[in-house]
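Morning!

This is the sequence you dropped in the shared folder:
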Amino acid sequence: MKKSYLLISVLLLTSCGSIEDNTFVQLRKVSEDKTSQEIIDDYDEYRGFLDKYNSFSSELTSTYFSKNKKDNFIISPLTSYFVVSSASLCLNDSAKDEILTVLDMEEREILKYNKHLYSKLNGDMVSGHALVNNSLWVNNDINLKEDCLNVLADELCFDSFHIDANNNKAGELLSSYIKEKTNNFLDGEIEFNKYTDVSFLSVSYLHTLWESDESLLKKVNDFAFSNNNGKKVKLSALEGKYNYGKIYKDDKLSHFYTTTADGYKLKFIVPNDGVKLSEIINADTINKINSKINYWDETYNYYTKCVFPEFETITNTDLKSVLKQMNIDKIFSISGNVFERLTNDRIVLNRLTHDAKINVTSKGIESGSYTVLETIEEAVGGDSNKQSKYETFEVNKNFFYLITNQTDEIVYSGVVLNI
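The structure's back. Tokens below.
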């Protein structure tokens, strides 16, 4: 009988609950205290790891956009990274090395630093809360290799569970898990039945407000936004707070950002007049915008605020072709047992479902995503010797955006062509 395999990664924003159900039994539990107390002994190497993570995120985003240029979209590079990197260490050497080459990482880097990326995305903040929870769900009929289970728990921060796949509520359990972790923001419609072998589930939560006192951003009336077809629409826009720095401009694009009370940044990239969005979205530009922009001016202290529309975007897609275009292919092999580090059973994968949603309002940002690999993923101080200038950056036409944390790791990326 043909078996199926699910590899799920979920990224979302809101509060988290617990699920109690006798359908599953816990096999391994991540030691949160141990994870949070891990010491980084080489910060240059760790910074290099984060740069590689952002490079993968940029490549994933640009590759997805190259195949989907007609509609608004939102994806989560973070969830895809946790899926791909964790899966790579469960694969045979050939499939693992293919993924490591694309990530430009060594196996030891993933083992050493994934837990730090995990830890920095967990905890209470000034206005909200960030959480990442990873888990492995295993059909009771499947025997896993102990060494791999231990690596997943101790190095990659994955809890593991045996689940009764013959119970018709097994799929509902995983769906409820996603729903509870996202405070009902997403309905995780996950199947887990007797034909399913295992599911890797990574849930990340973020809820962040513009202001710590929950006050709303000021609205600007009669704001004109140019849609991708050139048609202008009148709407109420949001006026962000001033951040230190000057608007970045080159011959093709303009860029600035707005911040939440927790230090998360919403970075806007807008094409210049006469330039198409498709001309500016590539991995090099995304990397440059995310980490190599100097907002400082030699003459003046610039302070800039963004005026931008509220928006909501939902994306439902299959990222398998995106990974293949990025040269990640062997994980989808139909011959042999690719997941030989995890189990002796033969597993075949043929789809990477990715659902994501973002809602940007006058109160803050809420967003979520889940990925299923399956068969049937600031401001700096001014110079007192300089005169101050204040600017407004209007996001008044189709734009690309990044959502990053306090140290500029990409959490979400997307495009708004039409409002």
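Headline: The CA atoms of residues 32 and 108 lie 21 Å apart.

More detail when I'm at my desk.
O.
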